[in-house]
Amino acid sequence: MILMTGVLAGWMLVGRATPLMADPIDTHPAAAELKRIFATPVPQDFRPTGISRDDYLKLIAANIDFFKQYQNPAGAIIDPISKGERQYSTPAFAAAAGLLVKQAGREDLLDPARRAMSCALTALVEKRAADGHSDFYIPLLVHAYRFLKPLVPADQAQAWAAQFRRIDPRTIYRADLRGMNWNIVSSSGELLRRKDGLVADERLADQMQYLETCLAGHLHAMTPLGLFADPGAPMAYDAFARLWLEDVYADDAYDGAHAQTIGQFLRSGGLSTLLLLSPTGEWASGGRSALHNWNDLQITAICEINAAYWKRQDRPDIAGAFKRAAHLAFESAARWQRPSGELWIVKNRAQPQERLGFERYSNHSQYNLLPMAMLAIAYSRADDSIAERPSAAEVGGYVFDARQTFHKIAAAAGGYYVLIDTAADPRYNATGLQRVHCAGVPFAALSDTAAGERAYGPDSSAKAAISPGIMWKPADSQAQWLSLAHFPSEPAKRAVQSVQLNIRSAGRDRVEFELDYALSDQGQGDRVVTERYVLTAEAVEQTSSVSGEAGGFGFHLPVLVSDGAADLDVKLSRAGVSISHRGSVTAVELDPDAVVSPLTLQGPRVATHSGYVREAIAGVRANTVTARIRMIQAARSPVAEDRPASAAPWP
Fold first, then answer.
1. CB of 424 within 8 A of CB of 407?
2. Is it the case that residue 211 has pLDDT exceeding 60?
3. What is the pTM of this model?
4. 518-549: b or e for each residue (b if 16 or more CB lie within 10 Å)?
């Protein structure tokens, strides 16, 4: 059983020259489970991914070759959809293209990379960063400078260095956003700038004072599990904040007042990353920017850094698990490469103009080029001598309790993995089971729930709260059908009051646990919904029940009917449904004897990050229903014609 703790225990720094002061495994709330995972022998039939860091270059190259055609004469990258320079597209292009020039021999990209570097650095110094996103420029520009410095004439490198030394962090970055991830990014970039001698001598003391104040302001958001609590606790921005700090520590670029605290936080967060990552490499969802492909590529960078760290600690078992996680996360994003070379920025195949799954700030350019810069960092930190070992979710046998702050539970056994949101933000998710993934099955039909107050695009699509589980109709015949999906985190007419977790067993081949949700409903009275999950190598079983009298009971789930480009093959039976998605099949089966009215698709198509879903509803006899969820890979996916010639191989 994994227990939460309320304090950060033990300290350490992560640099090459700094001694280990406390074992990060021992001080992690999931210490026992982590030790067992790392001690598990590698199975004889284990198959490495075959990925190396050179595959990162292939994906970067296809992306950069697409976006170089949208560089204007001044060097800025212009978004092909919105027709403007978006956020940090240009410095991200400079970093990714610069790496290709240095490591892939792409001399044809030297001029585009140089022009992007000059354009972005000048914009930063002159306080006219695109869309006011100055905080994101500096780490990207430092990496671009490192790649390009030995490749450009000396006078150009000196001119860039002089511009860097003009930066005053107190006036260039967004003071109004110092309480969130933006400031983590700029502070990390400032530490890299300092490391590289790009801070003017007369500014050194003041810059460090500024940085210590900034970092101190984030300590409260560094939770015991090593996860960063950005406002709203979105999973995307936990990892996003940690990535830039990991990059700093990989360079030994900070040894100040909070170095030990942040170092221990990062090592704990790395270990938590392994437990939250699905066996297909997909980062945990929940909150804003979920299922954007940059989520997974930041995990690739985080895990490459952690793999190298654990190799230096002479722990090939842990290093190998991180190396595997890095490669699985890379595959999770790479399988969404468009025929034109760049990525679909969200895990669906709608055209970018449709903005399916897009946040209001999501753009085709910046959310393609940012992950390529992340991959450039991953390449720079990767050690290909580290041999893969199974990832945590592939080993299985755990229930990871991240209810505190993040209201998440992840569990894995027998190759299956589930992610549950115990109190969802209704703008992004519905409370309950979020996803079921299975090792070797890349395109899961249950990867996202439908949000009742959806805040992401497209604006014109219908909204509904749908997650798999029991439904009930209050005795009042005029009342609406309800389910756990209708009870969000925020205090409102209906809300989740508390959630109790009971872990019954946790072995590699079988995990069983229960969740008791205390629900408050001002209109119909309080109820308790109990969900029992059993994970084995055969299936995931969810048994859900609801307390109290009701006028009827049912079961519902979101059925993915379209990936945004094409309808999926959906087959309904009286008590089940199967969804075929690019060769991956997800089947949900109810007990036929429990079903009183057959499973049917009802209501309009509803937008999710994964595509469009419809609500499948069956009437059931009583207040308890069991759903059995199985996944198989029925055919190879996708076909070669879907990929550009320069693309990395299909995972």
1. yes
2. yes
3. 0.94
4. bbbbeebeebebbbbbbbbeebbbbbbbbeee
